[in-house]
Structure formats: structure tokens, C-alpha cells
Amino acid sequence: MTLLRDEDLAAAFDHASRTYDALVAANPGYHAHLRRSVRRLGLASPGEGLRVLDLGCGTGASTAAIRSVLPAAHVTAVDASAGMLGRAAAKPWADGVHFIHAPAEHLKDAGVHGPFDAVFAAYLFRNLTDPDTVLDTVRSVLRPGGRLAAHEYSLSGRRTDRAVWTLVCRGIVQPDATLLGDGPLYRHLWGSVVHFDPTDRFATRIRDAGFDHVRALPLPGWQTGITHTFVAARPEDPR
């Protein structure tokens, strides 16, 4: 299948933004899993004085997870879809949350500069044309010792994981999305996962981008073996 990329993908997310929150709310554990991945950054709560980049914030579910775990942190939330970002920005937020419309590939052009203490990227990397370039950008905006958590669909390599993913997408997600007029985006969702790096390959990709302490941590429930938190750190500067 042909995957959606760049402007085509952003346009598909624009269209889907009106119903996106309702669809993800039907996914058991969706919001709890995001909070778990934020906690896996290992940052001390409440996060006072910390700067966190929420890269690919969508309608703000990941932003809410960050603020739930780190309520005092300053969060810069970025997304390439104006429709999704508009939904996120329209929600009630306490002080310290700032939204910016920009693709992950062009952060500096949009005025997004580090250093950040952490970057949180939920369901982002499999959608990118060039994930390696974005990993390089993420590393450049992190402070030395800063942490990355990529919360991502990345199959473990077992046949059963792909079978479960296909069953859920084709039996539940795609029919509902098609009724709402967003079939192409959710067909992309299925394909983007099965064509993306398996867990060990994505961990290697992160390591090759210059990160250390790379770990791939599974998430519980039906998504075990399908969704993982990839945690890593920018190396400290040599002394």
C-alpha cells in the first residue's frame, strides 16, 4: 500500500482532527500508556524548572500526559497538522504550555530551540519520511544528559503481534474510521506499523543516532508486543 507522508499526511490528520479524540478514547489504556511512557523518562516530579518538548502532540493527549506526570514543567508542544494542533490549543491548560505549528523536520525554522531536558514523541517516528534526520534534530535540541522517550507502535517480530494488530485495525478501527470519512488515514495507520522498524531495529536506529542508555520497554494489555516506550539519553559532554 502507499503510505501517506508529509503534506498528505498532515492534511489527513487535519480532516480527522474533529473525531480523533473520540476514536482514541475507545482504545483501552491509551491515556494511561502515555502517562506510563512519560514516567519512564525518569524525571523528578513535579518537574519544576524543566523544559519538555512534546514532538507530534496531536490533539494534546501526550501534552496532557506530560502535565499529569510533570505538572510544573514547561511544555513546548509541536505538530505538523494545523487541525490537530488547533484542537489541542483550544483545550484548557494551566500556564506553561506553548503550542507551535511545525513539522518535526523544521523545528528551528519555527523558532523551536533547545536545550530541552526531555523530548517526548508519541506515535511520531513511523510517520516520518526521514526518521534519522529527526532523531539527529532531537539530539541537537536536548541538553547533554537530556532524555528521549519515543512512545511508538513497533512490532516485536512475533507473528502473533502482527496478527493482533491487523485484527484490531481491520476489524474495529478501519470500519469505524471509514464511516467517519477518515478511511485513508487509518489504512495508513495499519500500514505504517507493519512497514516500520521492528522493536530491535528501531532501538538500533536510536543508538546509531548518537543516543546511549537505549531501552525498549513494552506496554501492557492487548498492545504488548505492539507498542513500546523507547527511552534513551543524549550522552553527557566529555569533561
Reading the helices and strands in chain order gives HHEHEHEEHEHHHEE
Structural class: alpha/beta
Ranges with pLDDT <50 over ≥5 residues?
none
* Sheet with the most strands: spatial strand order: 3-2-1-4-5-7-6
> Alpha-carbon distance between the termini?
49 Å
Describe the sheet with the most strands: 7 strands, mixed
Beta content comes to: 15-25%
Radius of gyration: 17 Å
The best one-word shape is: globular
Oligomer description: single chain
Q: Taking all residues together, what is the mean pLDDT?
A: 96
Question: What is the count of DSSP helices, taking H or I runs of 4+ residues?
Answer: 8
Task: State the total count of DSSP E strands.
Answer: 7
* Helical fraction: 40-55%
Provide structural commentary:
The protein is of the alpha/beta class. 42% of the residues lie in helices and 21% in strands. Strands 3-2-1-4-5-7-6 form a seven-stranded mixed β-sheet, sandwiched between helices. The radius of gyration is 17 Å and the shape is globular. The N and C termini lie far apart (49 Å).
Short description, anyone?
This protein has 239 residues and is α/β, with parallel strands linked by helices. It has helices spanning 6-25, 30-39, 61-69, 82-89, 131-141, 159-179, 183-194, 199-208; strands at residues 51-55, 74-79, 97-101, 116-122, 142-153, 212-218, 227-233. A 7-stranded mixed beta sheet has the order 3-2-1-4-5-7-6, with helices on both faces.
